[in-house]
Amino acid sequence: MEEKENKLIPEKQNETFWKRLDSFLQNNRLVVDRSKGTCHPKYTEVIYPIDYGYLVGTDGGDGNGVDVWVCSKGEKTLDAIVCTVDI
Predict the structure, then answer these.
(1) Residue 60 to residues 38, 68, 77, 84, Cα–Cα distance (Å)
(2) pLDDT of residue 42
(3) Which residues contact residue 50 at a Cβ distance below 8 angstroms, ignoring those fewer than 6 apart?
(4) Does this model's pTM top 0.70?
């Protein structure tokens, strides 16, 4: 007996992935705690070129909310994902 495969075609997987991330962003409140042009609290030579914050009610790898960088358009849409590794 052949097992029925329940796999999405790659294009559909890609579409589903981005839709889920858009939903995640739309359904969690964004807090900007470091505005564009401000200094990093620990490394004052680092100036934020864009607004930076986190999503309330989420957990990132560091125990804080999932980090979010806000584009200059001000729209609440997802354009990219950045994965960072701290060895």
Answers:
(1) 23, 11, 19, 11
(2) 92
(3) 36, 69, 70, 71, 72
(4) no
- Evaluate if residue 3 carries a pLDDT over 70: no
pLDDT digits (tens, 9 = 90+) for 27-79: 888 888 899 899 999 999 999 988 888 888 888 878 888 888 877 665 666 66
- The structure tokens listed for 23 are 């939903």
Q: Which two tokens stand for residue 56?
A: 């309330």
Tell me if residue 51 falls in helix, strand or coil. Answer: strand
Amino acid at 27: N
Write the DSSP symbol of residue 65: P
How many whole angstroms separate alpha carbon 70 and alpha carbon 78? 9
Contact 69, 52 (CB under 8 A): yes
Spans of all domains in the chain: 30-87
Question: Rounded to 5 degrees, what are φ and ψ at 14?
Answer: -60, -45
